[in-house]
Amino acid sequence: MTLRATRVTGAPAVNPCNSITALTCGSTGSFSLSGSGAWNPPGPWGTPGAEQVFSFTATLSGAHSISVTNSGYYVDLFIKSGSCSSSGWTFLDDIYLSGTSIVNLTAGVTYHLLIDDENTAASAGTVTIICPTPVPDPCLSVIALTCDVNSSYSLGAGNGAWNPPGPWGTPGHEQVFSYTVPFTGQYIIEITHSGGYYVDVFFKSTACSDAGWIFIDDILSSTTLIGNLTAGVTYLFLIDDENTSPSTGTINISCPCYPPPGGIDGSFSYSAPFTISGTTVGACDDCSLRPSEDRIYEVNISCAGSYTFTTCGGASWDTYLYLRTAICGGTSIALNDDACGLQSSVTAALSPGTYYIHLEGFSSSSQGAFTLSVSGVLDLPSIGSVSGPTSVCENESGAVFSLPTSFDSYSWSVPSGASITSGAGTNSVTVDFGSSSGSVSVTGTNSCGSNTSSASVTVNPTPDFTATPVEVTCFGGSDGSITISPTVGDAPFSYSLSIAIENPLIISGVVDGPLSGGTPKAVELYVIENIADLSIYGIGSANNGGGTDGQEFTFPAISVAAGSYITVSYETTQFNNFFGSTPSYTSSSASINGDDAIELFKSGNVIDVFGNINV
Questions:
Q1: Whole domain around residue 416: which residue ranges?
Q2: Structurally, how many domains does the chain consist of?
Q3: Which of 139, 346, 366, 424 has the fewest CB atoms within 10 Å of its CB?
Q4: Dist. CA 185–CA 545, nearest whole Å
């Protein structure tokens, strides 16, 4: 037996996925449809006719234009992503002659387009995809910011190039700005925006690219950002639109405060009260003492004293003062907030040295113009003690007085009757005294003022006395005395006795002997002090009251020692017989009787006499 099957319908439709036409941006694919199709995807109208599938992989995200032309009856346009199959199609349009559909596609995704005929009659046409214009890389149009200058941005309609991570998506256009920081510190970034919707701001400090952005804020109309930036680093700021509508705005970064040279805004040396005028507007917050802009001034103090620094009456805002031994550091000497309303004042006892007065606001919003007044009450300069004798003798000269301390000038005063003989105007003087006691004083003067030091000096009067002598009873005796009685001066006294001998040779004896003829006849002389030349001496006799006969005998030119006796005899024999020795010299001038006088001469002048030459 033979079984035979007979087809009662047409041949089975071909699977449209087996003949896919690939499209690219701007390319055109064609279709030619006839007869019944394989699918009938859901849509407003049935599509019993044949189908053609096209594929397209999007290279850009955004709105793509799909244009279809057709000749015949209506054809319907469907789209899906993913693999080709009979299900999952989304209706876009039905086209009689031509039609265009705008569809947002995602870059990298492969889409399928389906042309499906609404009847089984023949139809032919084309499919063309117009891609969005590629969005330029925002890194190709970076705008460099200039501090304190507004820079504008204008974001066009449509999709942007990036969508960095943040709380909200940013499908719109972008603008990148750059700023290279000149000084490390706090910067203020102000951003305005108009466009009806938000833009987001991001930043990074690495090279420009679509990655690595850090979200800061989203802005509807304006925002102010404050951040610490590091010198030498180039920062990038990204403005990215949260939608695809146009937006405009501005961005401004504040100019940095430039730290003053050496960390101080001025240096002053105190010689008299003075003022410092300025403003903290535009200053840096150099110190962490307060969260506000500050001004720092160096003040050199050469004189010890009490010094006051004040803004009382010199500012209309809330000031704060710090007095320290170093810039933004060191030791705190004094500080004040509200000494007089909102203004400040500090007072401190300062030694010579360098100090730093810091002026700033109580808070970050406190700033403005100011006049800082500096005044001082100086201590008397240290002077020390005058050194020198505390007592001198009447009319003593050459007494030296000095001061150990250095001054610019010196003015000395001395007691009445005394005079400065040298050193006036210096720190050491020589004084000749009179008879008055008193003070030796000096006033030293320098830039810090004047001070005086003095020393009391007692002038001791020159002692005076009376001397009462008691003569010895005979030559060579030891029963004489001299009594000294002070009449001027203050006890205790010390005594020294010196004998000033005017004539070292005296007549010590005359002999008119008992031997025959009244012999021996002689004159004895005594040498009190050494005599270098005896020839300046001589003797002469004055006989019978007839007055002087002058020098009749001169001694030879020899030296004679103190304590020696010299004898001059009229003759030798009888002298020897009587005394048992030979006379030193013989001379007729020694021919004398008991009533004759003897004269002793020195250089022709009588210096001693025995007897009376006129009797």
A1: 391-460
A2: 5
A3: 424
A4: 130
